[in-house]
Amino acid sequence: MRRTLPAWVAAALAIGCMGTGCRGTSHPATAWTGTMEQRDGATWVTNPAEPLWPEDGSPRLEFELEQVFGVDEEPEEALLASIRDIAVDDAGRVYILDEGDNRLVAFAPSGEVLWSDGRPGEGPGEIEEPASLVWNGSNRVHLANQNGMQIDTWSTDGEYLDSVLLADVGVGRVSTLGFVPPGTAILLGFPRTQTQGHTLAADKDWALGKSFMLAAAKDVPQPAGASVGADSAIAGESIVFGNVFDHEFRTFHTDGRPDLVVARTGTDFIPAAIDLERGAVGSLGSVGAPARLADGSWLVHAHWPTNISDPILYLRRALAGERVRVERHHAIDLFDAEGRWLTGRTWDHPDRPPFGYLRSIGPDGKVYSFVADPFPQIRRYRLVVRPPG
Description:
single chain; about 400 residues; mainly beta; Neuraminidase; six-stranded mixed β-sheet; about 0% helix; disordered N terminus
């Protein structure tokens, strides 16, 4: 399941330091051996195989668990069936799109349920094939509903307000919804390997402002009727993408202009498998959409299999019904605002790292992750960064 991130308005940086001599996340004077070049209007950054901050025997990134949203038993309204997306407001309230039960659930920062609303269907306040959830920076949460062809609005107090058919404003199906101040909506959809983006005046008449195409990854031939797309989000005032073809992420301005392409080298990243002969695709490795910290730096979660050497062979075996257990390598990396790789954490796990899957950075500066096992939940962490010195 591809996942999207909600937009946020960065208000406070919750990055702490361990020990003395903290200098934040700006890179130290140590020589960086990567390259930067201007290409196609963007800065292309190629990082070396080693991070700018060398290891010294203890992790430079720590995730301190503060709160879990979702339970495994009682109360019933706090049980989550299948989490599709989340949004976090500036008060630390967490809104969860529970796709499995076709509902929205709002949690207080302390983990108690504030309200729950929604039911299966296509009528007012009903949810079917939801795609994305976002907080608008004020007192509304918006849901890309009905297979991404409708935007529904709830108040942050849990009252369903209205719906807008995207076809009525000249927009097709979307998969990612976000907001940038002072109230402009960004909608993204995926026609094959290119990404269609739209800006709309939201909370008024949802009038279409601008449409544009984004090159979210390199152009790779894909079979008709099948495609694989990158993980996307609206992060602050940037449109951001992960990647399934390379160990890289990309950012764009909200008018569609390219900004950054940031790549890591020296990894054994396994890309998506594309079998044109059989008309099939399969995603193996994946770089998630980067989450932006309040100081402009980037936190990125990537994973890829460690026990598959031939992606096409694996895909064909899967198509034939053969189950192959996949062992995965996970990396959570910190890049500075310019795209230099500072440091990271790694885990080998078949499904997920102990931290979970990175979901977003909230306006409170905290890190939110998704965990499916032993029960669906969202976790809130305090990120601690320990630079050299």
